[in-house]
Design brief:
Chain A is mainly α and 208 residues long. Chain A is built from 6 helices and no strands. The first copy, chain A, has a single domain, classed as Up-down Bundle (Four Helix Bundle (Hemerythrin (Met), subunit A)), CATH 1.20.120.
């Protein structure tokens, strides 16, 4: 498993001449790192008497950030597995008509999964970004740059995941799946833009 | 060392209630991951007969991306060490005038280093972004989303590092150091904006 590797090993594996792991896994990792940073800022805020009024809200953000970070960490390996499944489907035999049909169906199934998975990563990253914006506004101001970096990582992970959606989308033949994914992407991009603008604005006020 | 930890261990350490490691280390890690992804796209391009014309340029990008990724990975631990040194300086004794003067000098030295270090990270991330834009344009188109994610990680690492510069800058008393860092930040932000716009434009053409 990629997330059981040392960071140095992951960097070496990433930079190697094998196409997997690639950008999809790194987009998920960016989101997981962002979630962990938001969780840290929450932990530096709860039980701090300076922030008594926001305790219950911060506890809620912390619980959600921990779950999102764990989910996104699991997607690091899931994305590479999904990519490998697509490659495996393309290598299925295609001599007879029956083989061709089975191969085509397997490719469509694998590509659809490899497209929906990063779409889910983008959706989780959007949520991490929302939590980062909020903890930046109400959390421990000594950790403001950590909250800001959390949001930036989630924003980058989101767009990175969407590039992985887009590069696969062209291979999906089912037009209803196409339309559904396009609509979900459009909503995520719109909400991300608002939240990223807010992150930069709040960071400008709190950090300078 | 943080980069000798497993990814899961790093995520747990990051999310804990200790202020270090924090956003500065993660900004450097984002840049290192971006550098590794650009190196991967280079390796998937060199020796590919479809890309014969760009071999020597891609070899140059690969060599530089490998170095940048290694340098940025080293900054993951260096940033946390710089932060810990600032904390240690603040804890120095301040009973006598002599102690106060020594403590103040130690704080200024530690904070200046903790500001210049992320400025260097931002500068290296800017270079990774430039390489990512170029390899996205000329490299193996099957790895276009990887090149795009590489650029996004470098862009996020750059701005994350700059938030760490900004949060420390207010504590630096030497106005000439202030002005020098402000000027360097302004140049980096300007060049990043151009390169990020180019990344999005080229990705839009290549990926969709």
């Amino acid at each position: 498993m990629l997330i059981q590797m040392k960071v140095t090993e992951l960097l070496a594996e990433l930079g190697s001449n094998s196409p997997a792991p690639g950008g999809g896994s790194i987009a998920a990792l960016a989101g997981a790192l962002g979630g962990a940073l938001t969780a840290m800022v929450c932990r530096l805020t709860v039980d701090n008497t300076k922030y008594t009024e926001v305790q219950s809200e911060v506890a809620g953000i912390l619980a959600e950030a921990d779950i999102l970070s764990g989910d996104l960490a699991a997607c690091v390996d899931a994305d590479t597995e999904a990519f490998n499944n697509v490659m495996a489907a393309y290598k299925l035999p295609k001599m007879t008509d029956q083989e061709k049909a089975a191969r085509s169906a397997a490719i469509q199934q694998a590509i659809t999964h490899a497209t929906e998975l990063p779409l889910g990563v983008a959706s989780s990253c959007l949520r991490v970004l929302a939590l980062a914006v909020r903890i930046l506004a109400i959390g421990n101001s000594n950790a403001a740059s950590d909250a800001a970096v959390s949001g930036l990582m989630a924003h980058a992970g989101l767009h990175g995941a969407l590039y992985n959606v887009k590069i696969n989308l062209g291979s999906i033949k089912d037009q209803s799946v196409h339309a559904d994914i396009q609509a979900k992407m459009a909503r995520i991009i719109k909400e991300d833009e608002c939240l990223h603008n807010e992150l930069v604005a709040v960071a400008g006020k709190v950090i300078g």
